[in-house]
Write a structure and sequence with these properties.
It is a single chain. The protein has 235 residues and is α/β, with parallel strands linked by helices. Helices cover 38% and strands 20% of the residues.
Length: 235
């Protein structure tokens, strides 16, 4: 990408990020009806199917991910993984408001057995595996041609919980018309039994979604924090 285009994309991205912080006001404190009125849904599956098989909803860190998770938690009981923040007050506020429509918030470091039990009792679990949480339980998989430390937790949990994996993306619509929640078909033959192959598939799927709305992906995350042995640091 030419430097001037990259610079324009970066500026638009920061506008989207700052806007997403302000919109937490509606997402965390607006009524259920107000949130629902802002979301257009395109779903390949029935989101209110009480007889659905165990399901992992695979989210990605686009600027509107909060809205998609909140919307689903209004439809069905659900659990969602989160990473504890260093600021205790902000962490408790986020946990409380993200769960205000009934979602059960589970800290990412918790035992996998608890998550598997939820899946087996019919509670969908929402998680995002597109952050660099360190080399433990991760593999290096290509992300736009760059090795990215990618969690294998989706494959492991799906295997243990006999769960389907359903990707979803929430995007900001132009002209302040709200959001679009897109829920895709379950990933086929997933998990495959090869965590590295599954990680490559997840990243490849994410790449195709980013190319549709590149300014809305959370590039502010340090996605390449850890590097394969011998490769220079990015940050």
């Amino acid at each position: 990408m030419p430097a001037n285009e990259r610079d324009a994309l970066a500026k638009e991205h920061f506008r989207q990020v700052v806007r997403s912080y302000f919109e937490r006001g509606i997402q965390w404190f607006g009524s259920a009806q107000r949130v629902e009125n802002l979301v257009q849904v395109q779903s390949a599956i029935d989101l209110e199917d009480k007889n659905a098989p165990p399901t992992i909803f695979l989210g990605f860190h686009f600027v509107a991910i909060e809205t998609g998770c909140l919307f689903y938690s209004m439809k069905m009981p659900a659990a969602s993984l989160y990473t504890r923040m260093s600021n205790t007050r902000l962490c408790e506020l986020a946990r409380r408001q993200r769960g205000r429509f009934g979602a059960e918030l589970i800290e990412r470091s918790t035992s996998a057995r608890q998550i598997v039990r939820l899946l087996q009792t019919g509670t969908p679990v929402m998680l995002a595996a597109d952050m660099d949480h360190g080399v433990d339980n991760s593999v290096f998989a290509p992300f736009f041609g760059v090795p990215a430390c990618t969690l294998t937790s989706v494959s492991r949990l799906a295997r243990l919980g006999h769960a389907r994996v359903v990707p979803f993306v929430t995007e900001v619509l132009p002209d302040f018309k709200g959001y679009r929640l897109r829920v895709f078909e379950p990933l086929s033959d997933f998990p495959s039994g090869n965590d590295a192959d599954d990680a490559r598939r997840m990243n490849a799927f994410l790449e195709t979604q980013i190319m549709k709305i590149p300014a809305q992906y959370y590039w502010v995350h340090r996605r390449f924090k850890h590097r394969p042995a011998g490769m220079a640091a990015v940050y």
